[in-house]
Amino acid sequence: MRKVFVLFIVAFTLTATVYAQEYEPNWGEIFPFTIDGQETPSFWYSAWSPDGSTVAFTTNPKKARIHNGVLEIIEGYLGGVWLVDADGGKASLIYQNDEGALYRDLSFTPDGTKLIFSYQSVESSENDFDRNDIIASVNVTTGAYHKITTGWHPALSSSGRYICARKSNDDRHNGGEMTSSVVIYDTVTGDEATLIEASWDEIVYLGHSFLPDESAIILSCQDRYMTPTGRVYGDPFLYRIPLTGGEPEEIDVTDTEGFRFPLVHPDGRNVIFTEGPSLKMVNIFSGEVVNITPDGGGRVQFPALSSDGMRIIYRYHENSDGKGGTPKDIRIITLDESLFDEDDGPATAVESDVPAAFPILVSYPNPFNPTTTISFTLPDAGYAELAVYNLAGQKIRTLVAGELSPGVHEVVWDGRNDADTPVSSGVFVSRLITGDTVVSNRMTLVK
After folding, report:
1. Which of 249, 286, 299, 427 could make a disulfide contact with 277, Cβ separation 3.0–4.6 Å?
2. Distance between start and end Cα atoms, the chain
3. What pLDDT shows up at residue 76?
4. Which CATH superfamily does the domain covering 345-445 fall into?
5. For the chain, which residues score pLDDT lower than 70?
């Protein structure tokens, strides 16, 4: 048992996958964009719109601090949230205030109308460690702002209902300790549940991302130890943590030095992450790791994956340590289908003696052409409806509607609507409704 978790951790492994070797690791192409009246921006986190036509990103001062409740810009300019065409060009500011610095993670809502992001605010109380960390939304058309909750590094689930975020609490002034936690926030009910909580001195959280079926998150972290000479860091680990509780599962991965910025691919089988200066991908069933970028010559920071899982935008540094001020440029990598093995099967292929306590929904292959198999697991007998929607929320095809037995069910979608007409290429959402539960999964049709 690792001391950083109060729950027992079990290994999560399957037969090894053999990846195709056609893909050649590369640094991608420079993303050409400008900000009027600004020098080269300090580009931080980014996000793709659901249809892949737009990129949102945050900028921040080169140096800033919050001192005595006042934001002080030491070098650079006030940060904000921006939009730019996916082909590049002039960026447009959609949100900025004089109380925020360090604008962080971004996620588009499934309909593409809003962005979820976090930032530091100077609105504070001296004894609350979380005082500066706000999770909010902004309408990309009107600029309307809405505060959601506190925390930072928000990741949005595929349905847009759940937010996974980090929180910290400093109780040292009362003789306690400083703790860090990963929480799930329900945007519909306002409920919040803590998945993991540990001492700040014992663990470092490196990132988290939802599985497409919203059954669990993938969490990366590493042990941290305090010694008389300072902090010492242990090996990195990757975990699958169910949203409904239960035992976190350690994913058995071949040797690697880190799992920063983990991004779950829409296929539900692969996780993209940074290791040192490089961008890599791991299959969560086999543990096999492949390179997306070369191992030397640059450094990847703040990657964001498109909804179809085939493009990554990131901040590139020419120097390997990623330090030294403004990055060299922003780049986009286009992935190749040879990176993905369609023979792995869906996430539900994991053998377990414990019945699922919640519906599970996945599809494979994903991306697909012309057909994909949608697999779902029901914990109980009852009425279930499975339908396919476009990103505008319009129902395209009803695949299942009726009473079903518990267990695993599969249905093939042939890329046609209810009128038996082939649909165009794009991103679609399969949605399973059982009782009071709704789970969703994104699928990409590529022709």
Report:
1. 299
2. 48
3. 60
4. Macroglobulin (MG2) domain (2.60.40.1930)
5. 1-22, 36-41, 61-78, 98-101, 121-132, 170-176, 200, 226, 230-232, 245-246, 254-255, 319-328, 341-360
- Which amino acid does the sequence have at 300? V
Whether 10-342 shares its CATH topology with 345-445 is answered: no
With contact defined as beta carbons under 8 Å apart, do 234 and 223 qualify? yes
What pairs with residue 300 in β-bridges?
A: 316
Domain ranges of the chain: 10-342, 345-445
**Beta-bridge mates of residue 180:** 168, 198
| Dist. CA 447–CA 444, nearest whole Å | 10
Number of Cβ within a 10 Å radius of residue 406? 13
pLDDT of residue 300: 86
DSSP state of 337: G
With vertex at residue 357, the alpha carbon angle to CA 353 and CA 360, rounded to the nearest 5 degrees, is 95
Of 364, 349, 409, give the one whose Cα is nearest residue 13: 349
Distance CA 375, CA 184 (A): 25
Looking at the domain 10-342, which fold is it?
A: Neuraminidase (2.120.10)
Backbone angles phi, psi at 426, to 5 degrees: 155, -170
CA triplet 198, 118, 231: central angle to 5 degrees?
35
